[in-house]
Amino acid sequence: MQLSPQQIAERSAEAMWARDDASKWLGCALDAVGPGTATLSMIVEKHHTNGHDICHGGFIFTLADSAFAFACNAYNQLAVAQHNSITFIAPGRLGDRLKAEAREVARFGRSGIYDVRVTDQNNRLIAEFRGNSRTIEGRHFNDEA
């Protein structure tokens, strides 16, 4: 039986999540995944705040990067980041629920481009992230029947 694209995305995410200690340590939740898409969220806790008493940009970047990772790995092909950039729009604050929604812009050859929008619980834009992926050798799970 051949798996649907959604089933492939879900199985790939399940395999990745089992080994993703960084996202779990950050406090992320994997909310949704699909072919070329993923949504992760986290609550800003005291240990996420910096000297300005706002969410440290590195944690916001990590949340966005993790959503990007699940989106670009949704095809049962191992994919890694080739280049990422982020623009911070507004601060995340203690107690905010930040949500990172990744979507595929283009996939060609071994490369992909993904945009990630990070918002808070009021749908206020916190950051815009763009990730470029590159597939490498390997699979997340054995898909041979």
TrEMBL record:
<feature type="domain" description="Thioesterase">
    <location>
        <begin position="54"/>
        <end position="126"/>
    </location>
</feature>
<dbReference type="InterPro" id="IPR011973">
    <property type="entry name" value="PaaD"/>
</dbReference>
<dbReference type="InterPro" id="IPR003736">
    <property type="entry name" value="PAAI_dom"/>
</dbReference>
<dbReference type="InterPro" id="IPR006683">
    <property type="entry name" value="Thioestr_dom"/>
</dbReference>
<dbReference type="Pfam" id="PF03061">
    <property type="entry name" value="4HBT"/>
</dbReference>
<comment type="similarity">
    <text>Belongs to the thioesterase PaaI family.</text>
</comment>
<protein>
    <submittedName>
        <fullName>Phenylacetic acid degradation protein PaaD</fullName>
    </submittedName>
</protein>
<dbReference type="GO" id="GO:0016289">
    <property type="term" value="F:acyl-CoA hydrolase activity"/>
</dbReference>
<dbReference type="InterPro" id="IPR052723">
    <property type="entry name" value="Acyl-CoA_thioesterase_PaaI"/>
</dbReference>
<keyword id="KW-0378">Hydrolase</keyword>
<dbReference type="InterPro" id="IPR029069">
    <property type="entry name" value="HotDog_dom_sf"/>
</dbReference>
